[in-house]
Amino acid sequence: MSWLVIDAGNSTIKWARSVADGTRFLGGGVEAQARDPLRAAVLDKHLTAQWITPPPLAAYGVCVADDVTRLAIEYAVRSAGSPEIRWFGAQRHFEGRGVAHTVALLNGYRDPLQLGADRWHAMIAACAKYPDESLIVVSSGTATTVDCVRAGPLAAAIFVGGVIAPGYDLMRESLARGTAQLPLADLRTEVNGYPRSTSDAIAGGVHYAQVGLVENIARQFAAELDGEGKDAPRLLLSGGRGRALLAPLTRSLLAEKAVSSIVLESNLVLRGVALRAHNEGAPPPTLPQAAHSRVVAAA
Question: Among 79, 155, 224, 291, which residue's Cβ finds the most Cβ atoms within 10 Å?
């Protein structure tokens, strides 16, 4: 018995087939979003060619993309003979069973249901993997988000808040759109010294802005924990640009011991969706009669 789990972001759509207890994936894939009027047809063509056989017993997901993309995904799933998708949002709190322990997370947003579903489920997965630890969960994609989770009493973690900023690509694109003479610069994964060309200056500015954002939030959170006599937080990096942040943050935050460790994590959102689906124990929808999905490569 397995489920289809989906993470529909602004730049990419990720999916995986999860065993029904939410502990591991059997396979999956990534599809860059089509940015044209034929988006539904493009997604249908690409995704139905890669759904896993046999069809899953249920489908769950989170979507922060626009309605056109969401409807296109739903159409592609139906075309593949899979069940209707149940879309998850944020919650006031989550409590459920992880692989070896109970996971409990409280949502500290003033309006908990306003929190992005992708951020919430990434934090659920992070708490499941690193119980009883304070965490900084960074996602570097279309947007860069930095979310702080405080280890709480009685094994209940607390999401205390976080920030959202334009990601690497949005920053460089905004400069090209909003100025008369600045180009759409190529981005570098490593920037050293003082840039001496316009393209390098843009790449360096974007890179240092991303690194500095994470450093500032991490140092603030670490100082608060230290003042309370608590251990330094662990920093988790995810998203398409997460690896670009690893080296500079290791040289700064890890060297300063502001964080206990820095870890690259993949598929946090999908893992959180699978864990929540398992714990909510929703009965699987009725399967359509026709099923014509194909095997995808293991993620």
Answer: 79
